[in-house]
Amino acid sequence: MTDSAIHIEDLSVGFGAKTVIDKLSLDVRRHEILGLIGASGGGKSVLLRAVLGLIPKRAGRIEILGLARETDSAQERREIGRRCGAMFQQGALFSSLTVLENLEFPMREYLGGSERLRREVAIAKLEMIGLAADDAAKFPAELSGGMVKRVALARALALDPDVLLLDEPTSGLDPIAAGEFDSLIRALRETLGLTVFLVTHDLDTLNGVCDRVAALYGGKILAVGPLAQVRDVDHPWVRAYFRGARGRAAKL
Amino acid sequence: MTAPKIARVTADGGLRLEASGSWIADHCDALQALIDEAGGAAAAALDVAGVERLDTFGAWALARVRGEPRAALTGVRATQAGLFAAIERLPPSLAPPPFRRARVADALAALGRALVDTGADLVDFAAMFGRLAITFARALRHPEAFRLRSIVHHLDRTGVQAVPIMAMMTFLVGAIIAQQGFFHFRRFGAQDYVVDLVAVLILREIGVLLVTIMAAGRSGSAYTAELGSMKMREEIDALSTMGFDPAEFLILPRVLALVIAVPALTFIGSIAALAGGGVVAWVYAGMSPPIYVARLSEAVSLAHFEVGMIKAPFMALVVGIVAACEGLRVEGSTDSLGRRTTSSVVKSIFLAIVLDGMFAIFFAAIGM
After folding, report:
1. CATH top-level class for A4-249?
2. Helix, strand and coil in chain B, % to nearest 5
3. Of the residues A204, B201, B216, B295, which has the maximum number of CB atoms within 10 A of its CB?
4. pLDDT of residue A1
């Protein structure tokens, strides 16, 4: 057992002649919430997708909970899928299933067991995430943008994973909902020993939730550490990011 | 990972339950068994000091074990307090909204709705026809509104690229009709009239129908899917917001391309079908090509050719209008995209055949 939940070593990812991620190394420790920041189009989502195994890497190594991402063993891949919950930026809810079925689907496939318990836990998760039980029978097309986000988070949590990967979780949520989401993430981390790796631009999330922040620039990790420490790194992009009007307004 | 367990202890206050082990999702089956077992135990308290691991499944299972009203909770570990508190806030029983049972009345209602929808369809198609007519009339006054680049692009896709498959298909059908004609007409010595059969059938009906059906399957479905996914991604809304008319930019070029392509393909297809008939006449019935061509020129009058060609642009219009209407009806889900594409093809082929029947009556009445 290593100390890190996600271990990335000398990772390179690119498309054609372009290298997006360049020999990047990063460790996400167990039970911590790590926020990844970076310029738009700077490779944050690419890094996240590489960790999720959706983009092939050119070189390097990715381990999740001590299991190699590119394992050939179908059983280990399933294990990673079971232990790792992901929430996509657009929600990626299955549009032919109702909200409740979206949550029950991974539970049914991985856990089997009692349908009643699954259904109740699915509804419990919806309630915890701030949706009414009445919404459970709706289809994703009938939900508002903010509700889609919440359902997507509930689905990422459906299996009570150890590692949670979130792509811009609070974008599109109103400040109240975003705040609730932040405290929910913290509460879940406390009780489930969750490790959270999230890509965000929400300075309040960075400030209120993240234990450490990693700044991605030019395909490499510029700095990683507590927010106060990263904020003071002397680099033009970091300065521009935190010293901009919005950074100041967030009262860091 | 130890399995979840419940021990029953009878203490001074009454029954006390003591939970221990890992109350997590992996023991989903065991958790349900424990809930069933503890059902209605009416315990005074539940002690959770022995619970090593806990997740939402376990916390919910424990809430169920506590019964209703919930038994007091003791021995909560600090790390688990947050999750217990989160569960505590939930209502005691979580039932999904009931699903409606299907009844006979529902089937009748569906039938009625389908009928009403058919009426609405016709109104919709007429509205789309009117909308296109207005856009077309406006474009006649301002020719730059014709979006020539877009028309050419769609003409290439629906017309030029369709030539090989259309020619091959109609060639085969022409050959099959000729073969069947020779085979059956030979029995009563009427093989001389096979060429008449082939020529009249292909030029008047088969050529244009086959091409229309193929165009509906090949291009109409593509139009519906394209417009539908644009609708889903709000591209059409974006276009309208900029003050542009989607009918001018998206629909008219597609429909015009189809109205040009289908007659051209009908012509090519009819020739290919006649060639197919000729090959069979030569190989199967020993009728040399010069004789076949001479028979053709006797059998075919310009009227037969005209009947087929006049119908073609109207068929194209039906396919185009239905495809555009169905595309704009797509809603948010991928499910509806699939359904709309299917109904675009089915409705356009059906309406094309109905239109063909009406044309047959019309041409008979005017003696063509």
Report:
1. alpha beta
2. 75, 10, 15
3. B216
4. 46
